[in-house]
Amino acid sequence: MEQPSFSAIDVETANADPASICQVGIVHVRAGEIRDQWQTLLNPKTRFRASNVAIHKISEETVLHSPRLPDVYGQLRSQIEDAILVSHTSFDRLALDRAMRRYGLPRIRVEWLDSAVIARRTWPEQRSNGGWSLAALAAMLGIDFRHHVAVEDARLAAEIVLRACEARGLGVEDWLRAEM
Fold first, then answer.
1. pTM of the model
2. Chain centre distance of CA 94
3. Nearest residue to 109 via CA among 80, 79, 88
4. What angle do CA 147, 13, 143 make, to 5 degrees?
């Protein structure tokens, strides 16, 4: 089996609007190993809901002097364009799409993979052992991470895919074909 190469992304949002991205984290996997990562705070120029702040600890004050998504679009695009991009559930995909539309930015071409779907297919017994949330899978796989820090959640999504590839003897291209 060829060693997997892909990227993983996670976002945190200011409120219930998926377009209100206030943090983006990306990790890059090359030849089966996490090689580098990138994270930035973003100022979504919108209100922050107290329940979101309680979860990720990012507030309006935290992002006051941070760039907006259009300010980092070029850097984001160079990180993920034409990549196989993993997210845990479809939320990050939806958030990125909505934020791009909000700012009138061109969509970035990627091939999406969902690490939650991959986990369900790899470890179906996890249904009765806590489910397939990031926290439950981290506990099951023995992976330490800081939940709701975008780059940490992206790293965990990448680790889930790597472990699933190893457990099933599949590559990311196999998972892409299986998701279609």
1. 0.95
2. 11
3. 80
4. 15
